[in-house]
Design brief:
The complex is a heterodimer of chains A (279) and B (273). With 279 residues, chain A is α/β, with parallel strands linked by helices. Chain A is built from eleven helices and ten strands. Chain A is 44% helix and 24% strand. The chains are: A alpha/beta (279), B mainly alpha (273).
Chain lengths: 279, 273
């Protein structure tokens, strides 16, 4: 089977007057259809940067080299008009921090129709019908009412679900989720992650799930790539990453995480926690 | 939006005054009691009367009629100047803020050069260079003031261009043109409206200043600044002639400045309830 997205030695550097600052130093991975690839790494490790580079939404100040193939088509160096048509259509994106991803000046309905208008020649009535179908699919109550609301009147979880809805309603063959759960509370996080698992099951899309949260990534990702300072330091499935990681950075990440989990579990059991503490 | 506008008393009040003044100016020929150009040297420096509500000037012309006719050049030229400065400033500011790189460098260096000259002296220089006429006054005002607005608008655009909703719009594949008009322009409209109303106040003062110095609107055309110039000779003997246009300028400029303040409150998208 051919991979949906294939990155090969992708490099990004920030070009400034004095020096070239390398941000992503050649990363290579691929995603198959129906697979979810998790990209794990701390802030500034080049997770989002590499995806943005492949999608062509970086500034002119950034130099991108290497290759990124989407369904066999080379993306790097493609003209911006063609890339624009791919984005939102064949490639869906969900960004972090849903509260700021919607323009505060427009009603939700207008924002949804923005995407629909970019990729279909639908009438306003069709757009409205499709928006309501989409909102229903994302299990949002009173969709008619929600369409008339401004972004700040809805909760972060709701907005994120709407955004996922917009991304999936275009029937993309690749869905990129850039830290979709970072700015959201635990309960909504759980719902959002479930949404992603459903999408994976039902839509047969290739998915790239970018996160620094080992917990979230373990729920949805089939395979995990660990990035550190712009290079791939480890890849494999979750079990592999947890138990057989060779890279010291990955091990550190997992150690810290499990440490937090252990304390959390102890705290849940209450009594034992205090005993452990006094000992 | 309109609801919040009507709730804001200052906004309603000042806009109303400006509209009424503009209307009086437009209907000057109907409202004015006398012909503003008709001289009557025997009746000069007359006091208030039924025929001449604000008296007459040194040539026996009706001051009130001249005030009413004076709205046309005063407000009209100021509005024209405002449209010119904000227009050029907005186009260049948006270009500099949005496209960055070499475009920004070139535009902003020109702006820096423009800002390094004191504005009043530049106006005189331009008027002296092009000759004294109404048209040149406007050109001079636009020429020296656009840089201020280009810089302010650029800052506004830069504030929004990296906002997540612009990124998101880019992610869903909207063309740059669309993002510019649909997301960036509306975001800075409130700034623009405030700048525009403050700018028009500044333009009124500047045009009146030039007319006062005899570099702008020429006699016998009635203009508030030019009327002040004519009245300065008789400041002590016939103060009404000076006070009327003086107060009118102060009141109108205050009105525009207050309107700018009130509009900022009304247009602030963060306060949408």
């Amino acid at each position: 089977m051919k991979p949906v997205l294939e990155l090969n030695q992708l490099q990004v550097s920030l070009h400034s007057r004095k020096q070239n600052h390398e941000l992503v130093k050649g990363i290579t991975f691929s995603v198959m259809q129906g697979e979810c690839l998790g990209i794990l790494g701390e802030s500034g490790s080049g997770k989002s940067m590499s995806m943005k580079a492949a999608m062509g939404i970086l500034d002119k100040n950034f130099l991108v080299s290497g290759s990124a193939k989407f369904g066999g088509e080379e993306l790097i160096g493609k003209n911006s008009e063609e890339l624009r048509k791919l984005r939102g259509g064949k490639i869906g994106m969900v960004l972090q921090n849903p509260m700021t991803c919607f323009d505060p000046l427009y009603r939700i309905g207008n924002q949804i129709s923005e995407t629909f208008m970019a990729h279909h020649k639908w009438s306003t009535k069709e757009i409205r019908e499709q928006s309501i179908i989409m909102l229903n699919k994302m299990q949002i109550r009173n969709p008619e009412e929600v369409l008339e609301k401004y972004p700040h009147q809805l909760s972060g979880g709701m907005l994120q679900r709407i955004m996922i809805g917009i991304a999936t309603s275009m029937k993309p063959s690749l869905l990129i989720a850039d830290e979709p759960t970072t700015a959201i509370d635990a309960i909504t996080q759980f719902e959002i992650l479930n949404e992603f698992v459903n999408i994976k099951k039902n839509h047969k899309v290739a998915m790239i799930f970018i996160s620094h949260d080992l917990n979230a990534i373990s729920r949805v990702a089939d395979r995990i790539v660990v990035l550190n300072e712009g290079t791939v330091v480890d890849q494999g499935d979750f079990q592999h990453i947890i138990h057989h990681a060779t890279d010291p950075y990955t091990r550190l990440l997992i150690e810290k995480r499990t440490d937090v989990m252990r304390r959390y579990k102890l705290a849940l059991q209450g009594k034992e926690y205090s005993r452990v503490k006094t000992r | 939006m309109s609801k919040r506008f009507f709730q804001n008393k200052t906004a309603v009040f000042t806009t109303l005054i400006v509209l009424v003044v503009a209307l009086i100016g437009i209907l000057a020929s109907v409202i004015a009691p006398n012909d503003p150009y008709e001289t009557n040297i025997i009746n000069k420096f007359a006091g208030c009367s039924m025929e001449y509500p604000l008296g007459t000037d040194q040539l026996g012309r009706c001051v009130l009629s001249r005030m009413i006719y004076g709205i046309r050049p005063t407000l009209g030229l100021a509005a024209l100047t405002m449209v010119g400065t904000i227009g050029i400033g907005a186009v260049l500011g948006i270009m500099a803020g949005y496209f960055r790189g070499i475009v920004e460098e070139v535009i902003m260096r020109i702006v820096d050069v423009m800002l390094s000259f004191p504005s009043q002296i530049m106006v005189f220089a331009v008027v002296a260079l092009l000759g004294v006429s109404v048209q040149n006054v406007i050109i001079a005002n636009v020429f020296i003031k656009w840089a201020w607005y280009a810089r302010m608008i650029r800052t506004g655009v830069m504030q929004y261009r990296d906002k997540n909703f612009v990124q998101f719009s880019r992610c869903v594949g909207m063309p740059e043109r669309f993002i510019l008009f649909r997301h960036l322009l509306p975001s800075i409209t409130s700034d623009l409206a405030v700048l525009a109303s403050l700018d028009i106040g500044w333009a009124i003062i500047n045009i009146s200043t030039l007319s006062f110095l005899g570099l702008g609107v020429q006699a016998p055309t009635p203009e508030w600044g030019a009327m002040l110039n004519e009245a300065k000779e008789v400041l002590t003997s016939n103060p009404t002639q000076m006070i009327a246009p003086g107060i009118a300028i102060v009141a109108l400029v205050c009105c525009f400045n207050l309107m700018g303040d009130a509009l900022r409150d009304v247009l602030d998208p963060k306060e949408v309830k």
